[in-house]
Amino acid sequence: MAAEREILTWDLFGTASRELATTIAQDGFQPDLILSIARGGLFAAGALGYALNVKNLHVMNVEFYTGVDERLDLPVMLPPVPNVVDLTGAKVLVADDVADTGATLKLVRDFCQDHVAEVRCAVIYEKPRSEVKCEYVWRRTDLWINFPWSDQPPVVDAPDAVLEA
To answer: Which residues form the Phosphoribosyltransferase domain (predicted)?
Structure first.
């Protein structure tokens, strides 16, 4: 029997992102830019950008997960790393799909901390073990989450295989 999981469908993602944006707006936080943690955070950041009328979206690539509940020892920033000049003095909303251990969010938040006017974090899901307690969370869970964008296997082999050809 498969382990119980939290299932986020595309339709439910639409509801989740809209409710998360409403919570942020009702709190009075008006970010100057949204910093997405790729890859899962791209979806959340895009939806929040539209809902909060924020056109300035940045991306930070961080590798941490290698499989279902498998991860590297520490998250690693991948190039290109955002230029801190672009963040200086801004109110930044860091967006990701999940705060699991919180290590990725902590890395990104700490990267921003000394350069921005304010940084807050928004996630669709937060797990109790997360070392970062996000200001904005749609739902809390202990379960592994199936996201609609990563629920199916890739339709092509690993990108490295394409580069070697």
So the answer is: 6-150
